[in-house]
């Protein structure tokens, strides 16, 4: 089989076509990242009138700060809960759609709608639902279980709120990819397993899930990045990192220290640590988790 190759008559044309994307990457990604790294070695006053080079002191102060270590712990709990819940629920919904024939299209459309909602709007929506004064869920919990819900005072309630809002926002994205992955699995494989006597559960664990592993791995990487960055608006709209730092994740602490506390050097150091953490997690996922993926 002969492979066709595209040959450009003008050697500079490929670089010209890449130039817009390279320019966007340099201006909006590489330059800000470089500025953050540079600023993390500085200490500035709140008005930007004086700047002092302090070397690694901002990083030393971070890892000696109980508040920062607490935000790291909060981020780990929040990320694990959000990733597991969003992937698990999306997979269950995708399996339900895969078994439907006539009503699959409208069912899929309804489930995709939440993805069009902005994160801040999703946060406000769930804030109203869980509001201890006017929300319907706190009233239902008190009437049925006698539980006094108040995410303004209870850190566990606040964590549940931000996890639920973040999961609801991300389920649609995961659902679409799981549906596409399920539809790409040949029906003959599952039919052959059914003929051999394998039940639905065994067919799922031995055929469906292994063949879904590339999709699951991709979504795992995307969801980890989502929990570390894109959930800022949800947290800001619901709890603002409270109560008592119970939902103050790493990305929200970068904003809180930099834009509210005006500690620009510490905020820049936190953003660099967060960027390195994401790079490390992505490397670990591709280096070790990908080994279990069946292509």
From TrEMBL:
Task: Just give the chief location class.
Answer: membrane
Spell out the subcellular localization from the entry: Cell inner membrane; Cell membrane
GO cellular component terms listed in the entry, alphabetical order: plasma membrane
Q: Which residues form the ABC transmembrane type-1 domain?
A: 72-285
Q: Which SUPFAM superfamilies match?
A: MetI-like (SSF161098)
Checking CDD domains in the record gives:
TM_PBP2 (cd06261)
Q: Which InterPro entries match?
A: MetI-like, MetI-like_sf, UgpAE/MalFG_permease
Q: Which residues form a coiled coil?
A: none
**Topology in membrane:** Multi-pass membrane protein
- The protein's name is sn-glycerol-3-phosphate transport system permease protein UgpA
Q: Which organism is it from?
A: Roseicyclus persicicus
Q: Which gene encodes it?
A: ugpA
């Amino acid at each position: 089989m002969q492979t066709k190759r595209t040959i450009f008559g003008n050697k500079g044309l490929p670089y010209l076509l890449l130039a817009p994307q390279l320019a966007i990457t340099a201006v909006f990604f590489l330059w800000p990242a470089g500025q953050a790294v540079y600023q993390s070695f500085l200490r500035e006053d709140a008005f930007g009138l004086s700047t002092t080079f302090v070397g690694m002191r901002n990083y030393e102060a971070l890892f000696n700060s109980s508040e920062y270590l607490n935000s790291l712990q909060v981020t780990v709990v929040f990320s694990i809960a959000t990733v597991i819940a969003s992937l698990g629920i999306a997979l269950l919904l995708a399996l339900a759609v895969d078994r439907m024939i006539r009503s699959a299209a409208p069912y899929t459309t309804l489930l995709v709608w939440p993805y069009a909602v902005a994160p801040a709007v999703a946060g406000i929506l769930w804030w109203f639902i869980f509001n201890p004064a006017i929300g319907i869920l706190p009233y239902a919990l008190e009437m049925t279980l006698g539980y006094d819900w108040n995410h303004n005072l209870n850190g566990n309630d606040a964590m549940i709120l931000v996890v639920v809002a973040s999961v609801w926002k991300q389920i649609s994205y995961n659902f679409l990819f799981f549906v596409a992955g399920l539809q790409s699995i040949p029906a003959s494989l599952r039919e052959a397993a059914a003929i051999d006597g394998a039940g639905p559960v065994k067919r799922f664990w031995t055929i469906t899930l292994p063949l879904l592993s590339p999709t699951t791995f991709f979504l795992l990487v995307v969801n980890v990045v989502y929990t570390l960055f894109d959930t800022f608006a949800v947290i800001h709209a619901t709890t603002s990192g409270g109560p008592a730092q119970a939902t103050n994740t790493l990305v929200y602490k970068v904003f809180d220290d930099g834009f509210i506390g005006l500690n620009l050097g510490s905020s820049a150091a936190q953003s660099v640590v967060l960027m390195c953490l994401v790079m490390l997690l992505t490397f670990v996922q591709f280096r070790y988790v990908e080994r279990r993926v069946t292509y």
